[in-house]
Design goal:
The protein is mainly β. The chain has one domain: PRC-barrel domain (SH3 type barrels, Roll). Helices cover about 5% and strands about 35% of the residues. A 4-stranded mixed β-sheet has the order 2-1-7-6, with no helix packed on it. It has a 3-stranded antiparallel β-sheet with strand order 3-4-5, with no helix packed on it. The chain is globular.
Length: about 90
């Protein structure tokens, strides 16, 4: 998959079902030694510096559950005796 294909995808948290952001509005942390993506960094700032501020969120690449045509599903908290409905 090319980086340009990730650009407009929404990031959805499996834990809460909440929309966390868009890949195009985030930064990717890349390992300079091998070029692999290590994590996604979602900025905590509001739109154009306005709005509600939150902490920056670091999403390890290993937390990605599924990359679909429109969104990326992530799991930040490990599943503990939970069943996922499909």
């Amino acid at each position: 998959m090319r980086l340009s294909e990730l650009g407009g995808k929404e990031i959805i948290g499996l834990d809460t079902g909440e929309r966390m952001g868009v890949i195009g509005d985030s930064d990717l942390v890349i390992d300079p030694q091998n070029g692999a993506i290590e994590s996604i960094l979602l900025s905590g700032g509001g739109f154009l510096g306005l709005g509600k501020k939150r902490e920056d969120i670091v999403i390890p690449w290993s937390s990605i559950i599924k990359i679909g045509p429109d969104m990326i599903i992530i799991q930040l908290k490990p599943l503990e005796n939970q069943t996922v409905q499909k």
